[in-house]
Amino acid sequence: MHYIEESLLEGIRLNDTDTLEYIYKKFYPSIKNFIILNSGTEEDSKDIFQESIIVIYRRLKTQKDFTISCSFKTYMYSISRNLWLKELEKRKTEQAKIKNTEEFESTNCEIQDPVSNPKEERYKLYQNHFLSLSKDCQQVLRLFMDKVSLKEIAKIMGYTSEKYAKKRKYQCKEILVKRIKNDPYYYKSI
Fold first, then answer.
1. pTM here?
2. How far apart are the first and last CA of the chain?
3. Which tens digit of pLDDT belongs to each residue from 42-66?
């Protein structure tokens, strides 16, 4: 059986056993090889693989229109790789010896190595704080970023006026900026 990216994401969102088994059989071996090659154990690879599925599941639950911009294999490998690098960092393992076991297409995949890409670090910092906002603020800011007029935002959100939509957008943006600037990683990413 062969799945396309959208059906894999939907299967994870629905916690579908067949889809999860397919993902495990198809993608786990390359993750396991990468982790074992880079100072890990089979148990570590199982933990990281499971944690990667959980990361995707959480994104699917928190972001209504979540999609990926690369193949599922690349996306899964990138998440697992980043989680393993963080784990190695915790363990104080020398990262200079990291060896990749797979070749992947070069795309603008959402998840890349945060150590080598400051723009990705800033985006990740923004994304983390954006997702911590209330659903109302997230929706207002998403609509605004999609260039929806304030009049239309007021209508969609059920606000009493365009003026209140503008005020709410400003409040949400201020909350987001304040949270980002108060994050200790903010100064490391600029």
1. 0.50
2. 46
3. 999 999 999 999 888 888 888 877 7
